[in-house]
Amino acid sequence: AYEQQENVVGNRKFDSQDIFVPWYFQQQYKTEGYDDDAEGGGEEEPEKEKEKEKEKEKEKEESHKFKPVKKDLVKLERYYHVFKKEELYELCNSIEEVKVEKFYFDCNNWGIILRKIF
């Protein structure tokens, strides 16, 4: 929400309604088969494939453990629009197929519950 309560955990001051927020790409979400160092395509050797499968199994087993932030994460930015109260309400209220059931402010965010009209 553009409007923020002061002295509340997580409150922010926005210079604009249209901002970019940092987002860190995690290596675990690389597309399968993607290799930074690869020159060309081609299929992997069966031994490498088996090795990768073993690594994946090990990662699954250890996924519940705490892992420190890796230094090699790629910092990206994602677009974020910060809504003002009346802007979000009017946008949702302009949809003919829905009715605004509840509109509220919670943890410095606007919340809205809509009901589909048949």
From TrEMBL:
Q: Which organism is it from?
A: Plasmodium reichenowi
Gene Ontology CC, one term: nucleus
Q: What is this protein called?
A: Methyltransferase, putative
Q: Does the keyword Metal-binding apply?
A: no
- Domain of life from the UniProt record: Eukaryota
UniProt feature, compositional bias: Acidic residues: 34-46
**Which Gene3D superfamilies would you find in this protein's record?**
Vaccinia Virus protein VP39
Sorted alphabetically, which keywords does the UniProt record give? Methyltransferase, Transferase
A GO molecular function term, named singly, is: tRNA binding
Q: Looking at the record, which segments are called Disordered?
A: 33-64
Basic and acidic residues bias (residue ranges):
47-64
GO biological-process terms attached to the record:
tRNA methylation; tRNA wobble uridine modification
